[in-house]
Design brief:
This protein is of the alpha+beta class. It has 7 helices and 9 strands; from the N terminus they run H-H-E-H-E-E-E-E-H-E-E-E-H-E-H-H. It is 43% helix and 22% strand. It is globular. The N and C termini lie far apart (77 Å).
Length: 234
């Protein structure tokens, strides 16, 4: 075979492309389950952090933390319009969530040393990205036990500070039941300790990240409002 011919070069190039594409496709398939499992583990950790079951950087092994989640956290899908737990097989529930993800949502309940807490998913637009997190409420369904923001593309040092434990710690103990609505307000600037309303319902704004701060206020309020039927029923 003439290795200098145009036909040989063409066949060789096509063969290499097919080979590399096949290898990459196989790797993507093999790694997909591993990546999905890692993402689910990260989600479980954030649920537990919001509930106060663990702190960021918990030194326990993955196996220990996964068992803790299984032992302490129960998750169900609820119909946000009625507040009722969705009944049916796992396949039926999954299909309803796929068709109407904003109506059928997964909520959690965790058993802690201080009683049972309710964990709700929250998500919405910041400045550059959709921010995902969890907010946990005390047994009174009013005061915040904890909150985490774990998946976003906000600017590090600015909007990215939503995941800073020192900032999220400010949410603990805040009341979501305001005279004019529901939710916790991320203030532009610092909370005025002399104003009771701000002590009860506000947290400091994120420095240099007004749009992200406003986004957090809006989507946390929106999501809490969507769960009002569930929170009032259970």
């Amino acid at each position: 075979m003439n290795t200098n011919s145009n036909s040989y070069v063409m066949v060789f190039a096509v063969g290499m492309c097919v080979t590399v594409s096949t290898i990459l496709a196989l790797l993507a398939t093999v790694l997909k389950e591993t990546q999905q499992a890692a993402a689910e583990f990260d989600r479980q950790k954030n649920v537990m952090m919001a509930a106060g079951l663990i702190e960021a950087g918990d030194p326990r092994s993955r196996e220990e933390l996964e068992k803790l989640f299984q032992d302490k956290v129960t998750e169900v899908t609820v119909d946000t319009e009625t507040g009722a737990e969705l009944q049916g097989s796992a396949e039926e529930v999954a299909q309803k969530r796929k068709v109407s993800p904003l109506r059928y949502r997964v909520v959690g309940a965790a058993k802690t040393d201080k009683g049972e807490v309710t964990i709700l998913p929250v998500s919405g637009k910041g400045l550059w990205s959709t921010i995902y997190g969890y907010i946990a409420l005390e047994s009174d369904r009013d005061h915040v036990r904890g909150i985490t923001f774990y998946k976003h593309g906000e600017t590090p040092g600015l909007g990215g500070e939503v995941e800073n434990p020192q900032w999220t710690a400010q949410w603990v103990g805040k009341s979501i039941r305001r005279d004019d609505g529901i939710g916790v307000i991320v203030k532009k600037g610092q909370v005025d300790a002399s104003v009771q309303r701000e002590q009860d319902h506000y947290v400091d704004g994120l420095a240099g990240a007004t749009i992200t701060s406003n986004g957090v206020t809006k989507f946390v309020e929106r999501d809490l409002r969507s769960f009002e039927a569930y929170l009032s029923k259970n």
